[in-house]
Design a protein that fits this description.
The chain has 3 domains: 243 residues, Glutamine Phosphoribosylpyrophosphate, subunit 1, domain 1 (4-Layer Sandwich), CATH 3.60.20.10; 197 residues, 3-Layer(aba) Sandwich (Rossmann fold); 139 residues, Glucose-6-phosphate isomerase like protein, domain 1 (Rossmann fold, 3-Layer(aba) Sandwich), CATH 3.40.50. The protein is 34% helix and 23% strand. The protein has 18 helices and 27 strands. The radius of gyration is 26 Å and the shape is globular. It binds 5-amino-5-deoxy-1-O-phosphono-D-mannitol. 5-amino-5-deoxy-1-O-phosphono-D-mannitol binds next to α9.
């Protein structure tokens, strides 16, 4: 998704902007650009494709100046091209703007501005903004009132960095619906859409709230409301390191993050388990609150929605509370039945996914209490939800979610166990047993990661497949959904996840000699049934890759390859069974020559509908 960086201070701006943009590359983008201000003139340079294309272009002469803004664009309106790349300038060249988000009324504004004589050169929605600010500057005395006036005419979402040639001592940052921070340092101040962009320079940041506008000077920052009134705001100190956001010796972020999973599990679990009990007080969830929950609604997108599928199974099984599950993009438009007694849980790694934010707002409007499970402190979801349970996975940079998924599962298991206990549905012995088992899982994850050769070998055998089918029953089906998404999004192998019993109702028609079926087999209750489904595909010539416990006695020749995981209680198996399949997906992608950190057409954080 698009990234924004801005700088004003004693240094030359463009090198700072490029370094910040390179830290945002992981978000996914298809063009990049910078603008800098010197001698009352804004110069802009843009290039389609990777940031390296822009760097190459700048060798022929870069914009000069110690105030500038930069952008990586992920196309929404108009193809990826030099012209459509940001920053965009107004008709007179006075104002330059970098924008994340979507302006919904841009066609209407374009028409109005066109009538007033403004010519448009790009296909973007963004281009209306610099024109509009230039128009408002004619009527207002000063940049801030002009920006306030211009923003009041925009519908949609934006994170904006604005440069005005006639206000050289200041940059403007504005946020509505798209995250933006302002970094503060002794060597100048910064604007960014994401904290990693400024981490080499500062840990002190302002997290802009909805509607806020920041005037960013070299030596101070003024924050204003959407109406232009001064707002006092506290600085937030970032506690994680630059190293944590960099690859640390691994060939890809995804691989590093897969290997960080034992730590992520420990970091998420340890603070919540005290003297043999689960403590969710940080989310202001008391035993009384939990006792009163009569229905749970779980909403998320992508991988986070797969975590919710596991959460649904765990909550229903343990706490006997009905759980409704939905993907956020459907939930928000289907007029869901919600009541103030429901607990709505939204799950999001980034805390910025547009559809999940909309679902959360809808649930709150309808009177539900919303609990967010998220990984990003200060994200929109974290700030707007009634309660927050953080997944302490650390920054997840790889577009394919791995450690965030595991920690989301863990938070949902903790909730399920505590909910069941508070409702008197889990005995003290079982409660203690579940907790003891959860505490072993980081070590068990480490055991899987200590011997990854079988996953690499499986990828070597199967990476040339055209289609791969994942099957499982119960919780294995939920994990299969995630395994299938992981594989397809980074290796581009077509794959589907099926409830194993459903295969023979249609999809089995696709199975032919040589097809690969990946079977997850960790659920004792349905192990025999799954075996029959495996036999059905074997009889049609399919090859079989099986994920199961180390001590499962697999019938001779049932599988061509087996990936083993340490035994755990079946309920928690998704926390382990996904790990070998993440690695299988990773190695398939690499062997097929793709960069798993930057899958085509995808972005880390999907901040548009
Ligand atoms: O940041 P979120 O958890 O809200 O993101 C949700 C999805 O966009 C995300 O999980 C996506 O499916 C990833 N590509 C999965 O690897």
């Amino acid at each position: 998704m698009c990234g924004i960086v801005g700088y004003i201070g004693p240094k030359e701006a463009v090198p700072v902007l490029l370094s910040g943009l390179s830290r945002l590359e992981y978000r996914g983008y298809d063009s990049a650009g910078v603008a800098a201000l010197s001698g009352g003139r804004i110069q802009v340079a843009k290039a389609r494709g990777k940031l390296s294309n822009l760097v190459e272009k700048l060798k022929g002469g870069a914009p000069k100046g110690s105030a500038g803004i930069g952008h990586t664009r992920w196309a929404t309106h108009g193809e990826p091209s030099d012209i459509n790349a940001h920053p965009h300038t107004g008709a007179s060249g006075r104002v330059a703007v970098a924008h994340n988000g979507i302006i919904e009324n841009y066609l209407q504004l374009k028409e109005e501005l066109g009538k007033a004589g403004y010519a448009f050169i790009s296909q973007t929605d963004t281009e209306v903004i610099p024109h509009l600010i230039e128009e408002c500057l004619k009527a207002e005395a000063g940049l801030l009132p002009a920006v306030v006036r211009a923003l009041s005419k925009l519908r949609g979402s934006y994170g904006l960095a604005i440069l005005d040639a006639q206000t050289p001592n200041c940059l403007v940052a504005a946020r509505r619906g798209s995250p933006l921070i302002v970094g503060v340092s002794a060597e100048g101040n910064y604007i960014a859409s994401d904290i990693p962009a400024v981490l080499p320079y500062t840990r002190e940041v302002y997290l802009l709230d909805e509607g806020e506008i920041a005037l960013v000077f070299e030596d101070r920052v003024e924050i204003h409301s959407a109406e232009g009134k001064r707002v006092e705001k506290e600085l937030y100190t970032v506690t994680w390191s630059v190293d944590a956001a960099e690859r640390g010796g691994y060939s890809h972020f995804m691989l590093k993050e897969i290997f960080e999973q034992p730590k992520a599990l420990r970091d998420t679990l340890v603070p919540r388990v005290r003297r043999g009990s689960i403590d969710l007080s940080e989310a202001a969830l008391s035993d009384e609150d939990l006792k009163g929950v009569s229905r749970v609604v779980l909403v998320a997108c992508g991988t986070a929605s797969h975590a919710c599928l596991v959460g649904k199974a765990a909550i229903e099984k343990l706490a006997r509370v009905p759980v409704e599950w939905d993907i956020a993009s459907e939930f928000r438009y289907r007029d869901p039945i919600l009541s103030p007694d429901d607990l709505c849980i939204v799950v999001s790694q980034s805390g910025e996914t547009a559809d999940t934010i909309a679902a959360m707002r809808l649930a709150r409007e309808r009177g539900c209490k919303v609990l967010a499970v998220t990984n990003v402190v200060g994200s929109t979801i974290a700030r707007e939800a009634d309660r927050v349970l953080y997944t302490w996975a650390g920054p997840e940079i790889g577009v394919a979610s791995t450690k965030a998924y595991l920690t989301q599962l863990l938070c949902l298991y903790l909730l399920a166990i505590q909910l069941a206990f508070d409702k008197g549905l889990v005995s003290e012995e079982d409660y203690a047993l579940y907790l003891r088992e959860l505490e072993t899982l980081p070590d068990k994850a480490e055991t899987i990661l200590s011997s990854t050769e079988p996953m690499r070998r499986a990828a070597e055998l199967f990476h040339a497949q055209k289609d791969i089918f994942f099957i499982g029953r119960g919780l294995d089906y939920a994990a299969a959904m995630e395994a299938s998404l992981k594989l397809k999004e980074i290796s581009y192998i077509h794959s589907e996840a099926m409830a194993a019993g459903e295969l023979k109702h249609g999809t089995i028609a696709l199975i032919e000699p040589g097809s690969l079926v990946v079977a997850l087999s960790t659920q004792g209750l349905v192990a025999d049934k799954l075996e029959s489904n495996i036999q059905e595909v074997r009889a049609r010539g399919a090859q079989l890759l099986c994920v199961t416990y180390g001590d499962t006695d697999l019938r001779e020749k049932l599988a061509d390859q087996v990936l083993r995981i340490p035994r755990t209680v079946d309920l928690f198996a998704p926390l382990l069974s996904i790990i070998p399949l993440q690695l299988f997906a990773y190695h398939c992608a690499v062997l097929r020559g793709y960069d798993p950190d930057k899958p085509r057409n995808l972005a880390k954080s999907v901040t548009v509908e």
